[in-house]
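Chain A, query sequence.
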Amino acid sequence: MSVERSGARALIFCDLDETLISSGRGLSASNADAVAELARRGVGVVPASGRSLPMLRKVIPPEVPLRCAVVSTGVGIVAWPGGGILRRLELSPARAAEAVRLLAGAGADFLAFSRLPESRVLWRHAVGASGGGREDFYRRLLHHYSAELREFPAEWDGGEGLGQLLAVYDAEEESAAVGIAETLRRRGFSVARATSPVDGRSIWIEVFAAGVGKAAAAAWVAEHFAPGAPCYALGNDYNDADLLAWADSAMLSSSSLPELRAQYPSLDVPPEETLAAAARRWGLL
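Chain A, predicted structure.
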C-alpha cells in the first residue's frame, strides 16, 4: 500500500494503555477532540501501541482522524481506519521456531501470535496447570483468549512464522525475565519489556523480529509522512523508552514509571486528558 506525504507540520506519537486510555476504556472525548483539533492545525497524531489492529479498533472509533497507527509495538504500521498494511516486520518460520525453543527451555509461560493483520493467538506454552503458576498469565488467557488454545507440540517447525511472542513473569521473577530477554537479544531478536496492564505488576517480555520497535516504526512514519517535521512522544512504560529517546521532545503520562520520570517531564492529569495537556505544553494547541 502506497503512502502519500501529508505535509504535517509536526507528528505526535502516543502510547495508549495508561497513557491515553485507562483500564481498557476507549479513547475519551477529550482525547478524540484533541486529535481532531491538532489535525486542523496540521499536527498528525499516531498511536504507537502494543495492541494489535483488532484490539486497537476496540478503543479508537474509525472516525478519529489519525495519520496511521503503529500496532504490536512496531510489528506493523497500518493505514487508519482501513487497516491496510504499510509496513511489516515479522518472524520467519525458522526464527519463530528458534524463539519458541529458547523460551520453552527457559521455563517461560508464553503465547504465540499469528502474523498481521489478525494477530490472533495461535499457541500457548504453559508451565503450570491452569489456575496455578503465574497468575497474570492465566488471568490473561481466561479473559482475553480462547480456552481452546493449543499447546505447542514437542517439536515445532515454525509453521508460517509469527507476528510476535509474549512471555509473562511474576513481578518477583525480574532476574529470570531480564535473563531471557538478554539471551534473546544476543540471538538477534528485538525484545521489549512492559508492565502488565492486567495486574499492574507482572513483567511481560515481548519477542519480535530484528528491527521491530516503537522508535523504528515512528522513524519510518516520519520519513514517509512528514519528512523533516518535529516529532513528539507520549508514553509511560518500559516499552516506550526507545520512542521517548528517539523523539525531538518527549513527555510522560501521570502513571509513568519512576525510572522514566528521572529522564522526562511528566503530566499530572488523568489519561483521558493527556493528549490536550501535552500538546499545550509543547505549544501545539
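The two ends are 32 Å apart (CA to CA). The chain is about 30% helix and 20% strand.
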